[in-house]
Design brief:
The protein has 211 residues and is an alpha+beta fold. The chain contains seven helices and eight strands; from the N terminus they run E-E-E-H-E-H-E-H-H-E-E-E-H-H-H. The protein has an eight-stranded mixed sheet with strand order 3-2-1-4-5-8-7-6, with helices on both faces. It is globular.
Amino acid sequence: KSRCLIIDGTSWQWGGKTYHFLTLSVLYRGVSIPIWWQDLAKLGISSQQQRKRMMQSALKVLKLEGKVLLGDREYIGTHWFAMLHQAKIGFVIRLRKGNYQSAIEQKGRLVSKLENQARRQVGQVVWKKFTLQGHTYYYVLRSYRSRGGKVEYLRLISSVVPASAIEYYGHRYRIETMFKHLKSNGFDLESLHVQKAYKVRMMMAVVVLAY
């Protein structure tokens, strides 16, 4: 009944070992619930190849066609996007300034022109369709004022229509709330001092089930 998936990772160190659970969750009634995870055993962000392998494993078990995946800035990559497209999974991913700018500007308005329009219409959605590695996506831009009053930009790459992209992305933070609960707000996953890989995976499963 839920259409939103969220991807993110959480990491910590204990006993000289590093744990990094790349996690796929489903958003159900406003709650991010893990449905697949993989321990990458490293600090830092996941690679496109690691994300593709995890998703391909999940797709062997779970029916995810037609859902929309939400992700933060580090979950970009043309091969990753193509794999989601092939699996018929939509996505809305946040971008850093300058990401894919040359592709976005191949035809039509420059990114600077879009930013100027967004600045004049704070809170309004500005977008442009563009092609990346043979696939058509939307570059979606929305300006907002920071607490200090400065105009900032939310930049997204999306395979779904712009108005829906903004609405969907508003739910991405739910996975961070979930990690807070798993790690420090009750379940204290980081303090479960087990070291063998299979025991760590089992403990993650137990904590997720309890959550």
